[in-house]
Every structure is written in C-alpha cells, then in structure tokens.
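Sat 14:20. Reprocessing the chain from the morning session after the first attempt stalled halfway. Input below, unchanged.
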Amino acid sequence: MDRKEVPLVQAKKTMEKDLVLDPKGFFVIEVRDNAIFVEYYNNVYKNDRIVSGNIKKVFKGQKADELCDTIADHVPDLLPGHYLYLGRELKVAEQALEGKSFYEQGGC
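Finished this time. Tokens:
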C-alpha cells in the first residue's frame, strides 16, 4: 500500500469542556487495602441533567488489564472513549499500587 493513500491523523487530547458524558454511568477509582477498587454508578437524572448516581457494582483487582477486561464484560456498551479513559486511569492506579506514585482519579 502506498503511504500517500493513508491519512495521517495528528493525536490531540479531548478538552474537558468537549467531553460527552456516558449515558450508561460513571466510575470512581480508588487505591486502598493493597488493591484497586472501581465503583460503577448508573446516572440519576433531574430535568435531563445528570445529578448523581446509584452504585451498581464494585470491581476489585491489582492489574489494570484484568480490571479493564472484567469491566468490559460486566458493563457493556459504554462509549468507546469511556473504555479508553478507564484503561488510562487504571494503569495509573496500578502504578500507584506498585508504590511508584500517588493515585488521584483525574478527569477525561
């Protein structure tokens, strides 16, 4: 294949103001008790706005890849960007668990 035919797309970070919230819910990630805990909440709406959530599941593990695979199995149909965000965040959480850094969940 001729490289001239393949478009080159420059990577860029999505700005938080441009973030589309996932209608399926959101996650809270914590590192504690020698594990990574991921709480999954569905969205609670008021006047068509997300105002809070109800906890639906809690995932526990020590490896980002295992948690990603398990979450994908148990919480299907998230927006693709949401899975990507979880992967990034869980890798940082795993590094914190290994004692390489402090973990605080970040935005998009």
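The CA atoms of residues 19 and 36 lie 25 Å apart.
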